[in-house]
Design brief:
Number of strands: 8
CATH superfamily: Cupredoxins -  blue copper proteins
Helix content: 10-25%
Largest sheet: 4 strands, mixed
Strand content: 25-35%
Order of helices and strands: HHEEEEEEEE
Radius of gyration: 18 Å
CATH topology: Immunoglobulin-like
Distance between the termini: 66 Å
Strand order of the largest sheet: 2-1-4-6
Shape: globular
């Protein structure tokens, strides 16, 4: 009985892993839409052709710069990956991401990729890199 089941399980695992690898490539990652917010062009697409430097956070191997950004309610903040390593923006705390769960880039941003999020509520919003949880930052919304 074992000689029949083991090859079947091995084949099943191989098929699952092969088909699962392409799934991530085919799914388009979309930035989150906050509660009580209508979809907007910014939240519908990763990145943008026009990025305001004053509302941008650069990502490097050394962390987020600035590590604290202060903006007004309704501001679009853009994270720009300037590192050769991928970085995945998510809300604190790790691992639940419950402070602002819609703040989630849904994938690791590769070199030169951007992620945009519209902050529609006042508060202090802490975030981190899901792929390197020691990299942290904060957006203060006034």
């Amino acid at each position: 009985m074992r000689t029949i089941i083991l090859p079947f399980i091995a084949s099943f695992v191989i098929v699952l892993s092969l088909t699962g690898c392409d799934r991530a490539k085919n799914e388009e990652a979309l930035p989150p839409i906050s509660e009580n917010e209508e979809p907007s062009e910014t939240n519908a697409n990763m990145g943008s052709d026009v990025v305001s430097a004053e509302n941008s956070i650069e990502i490097s191997k050394d962390g987020f710069s600035p590590d604290v950004l202060t903006v007004s309610v309704g501001t679009t903040v853009t994270w720009i990956n300037n590192d050769t390593e991928a970085h995945w923006i998510v809300s604190d705390p790790h691992p639940t991401h419950s402070v602002l769960p819609e703040l989630n880039s849904k994938k690791g941003l590769l070199l030169s990729e951007t992620y945009q999020f519209i902050f529609n509520k006042k508060g202090n919003f802490y975030y981190h890199d899901e792929l390197n949880t020691t990299m942290t930052g904060k957006v203060v919304v006034q």
